[in-house]
Fold this sequence. Notes:
Radius of gyration: 24 Å
Number of strands: 19
CATH topology of the largest domain: Rossmann fold
Strand order of the largest sheet: 15-14-13-16-17-19-18
Helix content: 25-40%
Largest sheet: 7 strands, mixed
Shape: globular
Structural class: alpha/beta
Amino acid sequence: MLLSSRLTRCLAVPPATAATTVLQDIASNQPKGVAKVILKKGKTQLFRDGSPMVYSGAVDRIIGRPPPKTGDMVLVADGTQTPIGWGLYNSSSIFCVRLMQLEEEASGDPSCALNVEKLVETRIDAAISLRKNLGLPSANTNAYRLVNSEGDRLSGLIVDVFGDLAVVASSAAWVEKYKEHIRHCISRIDGIKSIVWRPSTEILKEEGLDLSDLAQEELPGSIETVKVVENGISYVISLDGQKTGFYADQRENRQFISTISNGQRVLDMCCYTGGFSLNAARGHASDVTGIDSSSPALELAKQNIILNNNLDPERISFLKQDATAFMKNAASRNELWDIVILDPPKLAPRRKVLQSASGMYRNLNSLAMRLTKPGGFLMTCSCSGAMTQSGQFLPVLQGAAQMAGRKITVVREGGAACDHPIDPSYPEGAYLSNFLLRVV
């Protein structure tokens, strides 16, 4: 959506009421000048507290001539025109500015002030340091998230590392503008030999970019799959798969499954390439069944059994079936499992479909509960940010239990793995819910 003409009206010279700040001083020395985005009364504190996304509705006016273009650096200022920070402008997105640095941070480290290249280098270095402190990568795990968008204060940039390969998911216009510099920063990381750039085309379309300019990069050389290890289990990842190719966010939840599977009969619904299934098998489950509707995903899952020759292939089977149809048929046969895992795809990509998605989550979980042995466990997940942020997932699960005629208690609540940090000033970054339920 384009900003209104009132929002974009420009004045030649800012009034002299603006207080002198570090950012103001640096901006005054920029050869092309730096526009100011003036916030509406009452909106400033939200962004002083760290929220990185300045919505167009929070903006009163923009001062500067010529007007800023998408990707340009701008100052973000309060009603007295005193800068509170700086960010990157977008003339088309509902996110008018992505705040990159606050005034007090610029005062402490002016080297990054109004310097995108230096800021990106600094933030990526900080992300590397955080992962090292978390023990990533390691001999047991070389698949992890290196940069998690707002959680690493690089809104719109995600970088997943799979061995010596980095996959970049871009969802902001500024990321595309500084693509070559970001690639350079990643290429200098020890151990990274190849980079794949994956633009999130539908999101970038909303950012005002031309989709014809966002063609998927050819994979480097003959790379189509890559082998990685997570928690000591080997996987083949398809780079043509979903998202960046692998769901590293479930790593800690998958490992937990291995700790409770000894001697248990396990059903893994929407198993994708077998992450939960393989962890259950490593935990000495007596029998593991994985169900998915994707033939390519199941082919990888079967390859992953072969890769891990310490697992008994006789105890693991993968079947191509629709999740709802399988569970209905199994319920009609009164089949029961000690542990059921339900990790469906994103059912609520936007808030406007939350109500209909809630019904789908309720129906799927009701079926899964009917297949859970009394006293057994259901690990159920939602990767829909709209559902997680609404706080309605647990009430939906309670409704599912009523439908199934069962009672549930929450044994464990999890989310994304620790390499997916969340900025508390931007709770919209939380998207993954994972509940372990006891079903009676």
